[in-house]
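Fold this sequence, please.
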Amino acid sequence: MTRILLIDDDTQLVGLLTEYLAREGFAVTSASDGIGGVTKALSGNYAIAVLDVMMPRLNGMDALRQIRRESTLPLLMLTGRGDDVDRVTGLELGADDYVTKPCTPRELTARLRAILRRTTPGSAPGRPCGPLICGALTIWPELRSAHWLGQPLILTSTEFSVLEILLRHAGTPVTKNHLSEHALGRPHTRYDRSIDVHVSSVRRKLGLLPNGRSRIQVVQRIGYQFLKE
């Protein structure tokens, strides 16, 4: 059974989600504060974690920072409706995606499944095997790993998905909607900055080319393009 960690002090919501997720075939553990949540998240016992922004003892953002310093565990943030700053900050700190509260168990489960599908090695049947190589970048989709300039490139699960999509279309612009549908599992909406934040993080980790340009270029009114050598 896939093990999910719920980090939230709302006991009623946790109880509701735990019951629903158990019926969907997941094994659920919960933590009611940020400190306990960080400890459990770093135990290596979970496939994914759900982390609320408003937490006692250690808030969700600080908990996310601590987890990301040591782990690339997939993380789904729970944010208040309309809290755009929280959503963007969470993504910048390394959250894979977010769901706004109040949310239905069905919506949360669908979002969790979407993340798990793209983060599980070998979970995409029919996809070409073998590494993808473009200049100094090599990624192994089956292993969900990447090397840049001969060194391991540390990416969150969503960042890896974004980079893989761009690399598979190297030299060709990729729309934000395509990136959102294939990297996040949902259509892109007008005011959703999620893809922009994830791409910005990947660009930062790749650094600049000798000519000062980024390997990933913005294509106005379309999306992004990974430059070929």
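The two ends are 43 Å apart (CA to CA). Helices lie at 11-23, 34-41, 60-70, 84-92, 105-119, 157-168, 176-184, 194-206.
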